[in-house]
């Protein structure tokens, strides 16, 4: 795929080979619905006194607002090959495991292995860099949200 990006200039022509990308807007619509429904159930509140569902709701509305733009600018694409799908799985797998691991290990405990897998095997960074990122990134997220912003998060 990288070799195609080196030659890429502007918008692909409609006569370019490959199917038209209809999937991305549809997936975004489903994901937005998955976020909107529970966020409304959590309660929206107001801007002055936001409820727990307000910010996820507003972010999902931004995604919904982007869908017509995606449909208007859709283009033909080359379907992903096996190595590209493997990279997506290498990111999605650890992220999906992070959610249940957080209950047992906390933010830093669950975040370190996820970041290590992504940095080393997806981004293909060296081991030393991967370990540094795997330790620093979750610790920085914890410091920002738990310590600076007062969000109730468990580190371990």
Give a quick set of tags describing it.
156 residues, mainly alpha, 2 domains, 69% helix, 0% strand, flat
What is the alpha-carbon Rg in Å?
20 Å
Shape: flat
| Low-pLDDT regions | none
How many DSSP H or I helices?
5
Return the structural class: mainly alpha
Number of domains: 2
Helix content: 55-70%
Topology, number of strands? 0
Mean pLDDT: 84
Give the terminus-to-terminus CA distance: 39 Å
**Biggest sheet descriptor:** none
What is the N-to-C order of secondary-structure elements (H for helix, E for strand)?
HHHHH
Proportion of beta-strand residues: under 5%
Tell me what you see in this structure:
By secondary structure, this protein is mainly α. The chain has two domains: 1-79; 81-156, no CATH class. The chain is built from five helices and no strands. Helix 4 (82-122) crosses helix 5. The longest helix has 41 residues, at 82-122.
Quick recap of the structure?
The protein is an all-alpha fold and 156 residues long. 69% of the residues lie in helices and 0% in strands. Keywords: Membrane, Transmembrane, Transmembrane helix.
Q: What are the SSEs and their pairings?
A:
Layout: H1 2-6, H2 23-42, H3 54-72, H4 82-122, H5 127-148
């Amino acid at each position: 795929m990288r070799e195609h990006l080196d030659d890429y200039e502007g918008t692909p022509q409609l006569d370019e080979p490959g199917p038209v990308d209809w999937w991305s807007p549809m997936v975004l619509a489903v994901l937005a619905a998955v976020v909107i429904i529970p966020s409304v159930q959590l309660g929206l509140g107001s801007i002055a006194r936001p409820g727990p569902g307000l910010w996820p709701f507003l972010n999902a509305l931004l995604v919904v607002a982007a869908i017509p733009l995606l449909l208007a600018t859709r283009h033909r694409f080359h379907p992903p090959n096996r190595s590209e799908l493997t990279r997506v799985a290498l990111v999605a797998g650890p992220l999906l495991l992070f959610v249940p691991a957080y209950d047992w290990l906390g933010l830093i405990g669950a975040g370190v292995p996820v970041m290590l897998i992504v940095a080393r095997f997806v981004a293909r960074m060296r081991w030393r860099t991967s370990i540094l990122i795997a330790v620093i990134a979750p610790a920085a997220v914890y410091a920002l949200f738990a310590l600076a912003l007062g969000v109730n998060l468990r580190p371990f």
